[in-house]
């Protein structure tokens, strides 16, 4: 036998114990993992004792998470968190859900709600959020004190959870976003937002017999002009009845 053949035989004898060791480690690991799985799946230590819901501001627990009590008593590892989050996300009032385990026995459900920004007048007052999603009514509370929008047609079929996509709806959402950006306190004074095919958007103010004609589009710039003019008029202690911003770079004031 040559020296080269001897070296090959020695390497083969060295590799064989290593391979056997790797296989044994793998088998032991599988056995331990199987035993650990059986233990965690049956141990009383990992029984769900508390379901903690965070993030709710407007909605009630029973409306947003109606089946949370059904989780109590189950093994915490047997709860499918992805399925739980997906089911809760079907509620139109929910923007996002994240469910996590807090060992040994707590499931935490983090919810981000959709916040209403206006009430649309469709015979009954219906809430919409800042993205135009139609929110279902809540039995536990009255509609919030928000501007009432008229002139938007409801979508066909079941309206709840649907997003308003008409030109009129997009115009109102653009306006609400502009108000939140330029003059957030103004929204508290707005009683009604009317979408008119000829005049665009007309605001009726709650604290006085005032109307603001905003026309169509460019709402941010118009609100900046309006804020400046209102400040100047307030210094003169005069109360206008109409602000008309339908003309480019102008604010027409009527007393």
UniProtKB/TrEMBL annotation:
It comes from the Bacteria. The keyword Cell cycle applies. Its main location: membrane. Keywords: Cell cycle, Cell division, Cell inner membrane, Cell membrane, Membrane, Transmembrane, Transmembrane helix. Residues 46-114 form the POTRA domain. Gene3D superfamilies: Cell division protein FtsQ/DivIB, membrane protein fhac. GO terms for biological process: cell septum assembly. It is found in: Membrane. One of its GO terms (cellular component) is membrane. InterPro entries: Cell_div_FtsQ/DivIB_C, FtsQ, FtsQ_C_sf, POTRA, POTRA_FtsQ_type. This is POTRA domain-containing protein. It comes from candidate division TA06 bacterium DG_24. The lineage of its organism: Bacteria, Bacteria division TA06.
């Amino acid at each position: 036998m040559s020296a080269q053949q001897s070296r090959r035989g020695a390497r083969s004898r060295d590799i064989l114990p290593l391979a056997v060791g790797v296989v044994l480690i793998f088998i032991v690991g599988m056995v331990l993992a199987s035993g650990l799985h059986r233990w965690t799946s049956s141990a009383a230590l990992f029984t769900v004792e508390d379901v903690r819901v965070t993030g709710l501001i407007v909605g009630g627990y029973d409306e947003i998470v109606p089946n949370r009590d059904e989780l109590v008593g189950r093994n915490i590892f047997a709860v499918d968190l992805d399925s739980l989050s997906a089911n809760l996300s079907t509620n139109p009032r929910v923007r996002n859900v994240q469910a996590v385990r807090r060992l040994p026995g707590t499931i935490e459900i983090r919810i981000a709600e959709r916040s209403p920004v206006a009430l649309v007048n469709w015979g009954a007052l219906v809430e919409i959020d800042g993205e135009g999603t139609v929110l279902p009514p809540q039995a536990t509370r009255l509609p919030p004190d928000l501007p009432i929008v008229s002139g938007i047609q409801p979508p066909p079929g079941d309206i709840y959870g649907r997003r308003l996509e008409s030109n009129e709806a997009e115009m109102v959402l653009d306006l609400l976003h502009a108000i939140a950006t330029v003059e957030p306190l103004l929204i508290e004074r707005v009683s009604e937002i009317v979408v008119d095919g000829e005049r665009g958007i007309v605001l009726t103010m709650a604290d006085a017999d005032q109307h603001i004609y905003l026309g169509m589009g460019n709402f941010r710039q118009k609100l900046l002009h309006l804020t400046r003019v209102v400040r100047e008029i307030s210094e003169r202690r005069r109360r206008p009845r109409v602000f008309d911003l339908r003309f480019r770079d102008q604010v027409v004031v009527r007393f």
